[in-house]
């Protein structure tokens, strides 16, 4: 089946179509409630999750389908040493589509090759998190009406933050984005992601350490959590985790219509007082994540949304 390991697996037109479908779904919830009747989704989560697993599951339930799966490998035969490939060859017999999260980079690709049904990457280690990016793009569309011609600051753990890698990769495809990469030296953006920006003539980037010095230039500030689970050394984590804390004082130097995004969960990096600021968009991202997963699941299954009129391809 067609899988989604990274958003590079689908065309730019298909991404635009998913954004269009999600907006349709939001305003036609009753009409779409039987789109995936009889379908079964498996959620195979080898790593903790609140939003991603629950929104994948809710998305399938709201489309009329059903859900099976495990949250925590200790209750599956993985704990006895079963491989990812054998697990996916097995689960392919039970379900129509799989969403999988795993702590190892590349696990989703291995799974997609072993499975005979579509596999959606719900996060593979510090590599990619494509469905989070779909939620992020929908949030940028609703805030700005566009996902290009923006100055996008990404702040925090740019080394291990897979949501950042997916978002940069995808924004480069649409082009005309100025990236401001804000991190300590120890948590800079990986070279393969920098290379993606460099390969995009309409995009530019700077790497800086000081959030306060650049916050006034940004249209979007994408905050991230320092990824404790990816550190080898607890002392390094403790030293770096509170490098950036966005509070109302810092936000007072930002543009009045800047959007603050965060994939969540947050620890300390956004003060709770910021939640009431109109620039805070991170709980909108949560809602958009569910809608985009509804659009994605129905699309990968080839199940048409009743009453939906597809986007026309752009004239070239
Ligand atoms: N944003 C995100 O992936 O959240 P969870 O880890 O809770 O799924």
Automatic annotation (TrEMBL):
The keyword Transferase applies. Residues 2-140 form the Aspartate/ornithine carbamoyltransferase carbamoyl-P binding domain. The keyword Cell division does not apply. It is an enzyme of class 2 (transferase). It catalyses: carbamoyl phosphate + L-aspartate = N-carbamoyl-L-aspartate + phosphate + H(+). Carbamoyl phosphate binds at residues 51-52, 101, 129, 132, 264-265. One of its GO terms (molecular function) is aspartate carbamoyltransferase activity. One of its GO terms (biological process) is 'de novo' pyrimidine nucleobase biosynthetic process. This is Aspartate carbamoyltransferase.
């Amino acid at each position: 089946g067609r899988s989604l390991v990274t958003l590079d697996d689908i065309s730019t037109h298909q991404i635009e179509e998913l954004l269009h479908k999600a907006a349709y779904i939001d305003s036609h919830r009753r009409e779409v409630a039987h789109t995936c009747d009889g379908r079964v989704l498996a959620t195979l989560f080898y790593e903790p999750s609140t939003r991603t697993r629950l929104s994948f599951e809710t998305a399938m339930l709201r489309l009329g389908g059903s859900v099976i799966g495990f949250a925590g490998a200790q209750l599956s035969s993985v704990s006895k040493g079963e491989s990812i490939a054998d697990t996916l060859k097995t689960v392919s017999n039970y379900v129509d589509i799989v969403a999988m999260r795993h702590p190892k980079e590349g696990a989703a690709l291995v799974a997609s090759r072993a499975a005979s049904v579509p596999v959606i990457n719900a996060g593979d280690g510090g590599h990619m998190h494509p469905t989070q990016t779909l939620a992020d793009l929908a949030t940028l569309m609703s805030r700005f009406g566009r996902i290009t011609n923006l100055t996008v600051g990404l702040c925090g753990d740019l080394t291990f933050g897979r949501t950042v890698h997916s978002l940069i990769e995808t924004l480069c495809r649409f082009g005309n984005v100025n990236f401001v990469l804000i991190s300590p030296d120890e948590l800079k953006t990986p070279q393969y992601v920098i290379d993606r920006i460099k390969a995009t003539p309409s995009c530019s980037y700077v790497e800086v350490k000081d959030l306060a010095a650049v916050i006034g230039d940004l249209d979007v500030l994408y905050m991230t959590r320092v990824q404790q689970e990816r550190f080898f050394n607890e002392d390094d984590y403790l030293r770096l985790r509170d490098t950036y804390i966005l509070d109302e004082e810092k936000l007072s130097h930002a543009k009045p219509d800047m959007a603050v995004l965060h994939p969540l969960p947050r620890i300390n990096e956004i003060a709770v007082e910021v939640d009431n600021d109109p620039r805070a968009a991170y709980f909108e991202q949560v809602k958009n994540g569910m809608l985009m997963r509804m659009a994605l699941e129905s699309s990968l299954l080839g199940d048409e949304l009743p009453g939906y009129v597809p986007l026309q391809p752009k004239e070239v």
